[in-house]
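Encode chain A's predicted structure.
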Amino acid sequence: MLRGKDRILMFQSVDAVLGEDAVVFGNSTEHTWSTENELVDEQTKQGRVLGYGDNSESTDCTAYVDTSDAGQNVIANAIRDHKQIKVWEVDLPLNADGEHNARFAYALVESIEEAAGEGFVELSGTLQVFGKSQRGTLPALPPEVIEFAQYGFETPGQTTGEFTGEEAPVTPVTPAT
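Encoded structure for chain A:
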């Protein structure tokens, strides 16, 4: 069974430099990927004729606002600048071939909204997919992508300061025997 936290969204601006990595949509609380079909519904003398029409796909995503988060900034900049973005929905558990199952699409950001209530400020966005998304696989992601906003094991005196959720995880150190 795949859990919600085992699936992430990654974004990339279409203006990104060739070879630049996509970025994780940080502090994500949930997202959906929807496919809808416009049915063709006509009446004839013999009765109703019903068939499939055109599909449309969209993804809705929600996260706690972090103005320094690169993923959140990709969608905010895209709607402001009227630019397309690339979006990947990635399953974190590796498949039998040691890769991540993924879905990819070009999209336009239809809307973003920030909501401030009692708790953290939330950012919600809706992205409309061009044509049809494509399924495929991605090579195994680096640990810092999968362990985003987590930290690794440290030995005493290895680092100083507080955890901010922005630093890359520390590589585990095996104590000397």
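Residues 167-177 have pLDDT under 50 and may be disordered.
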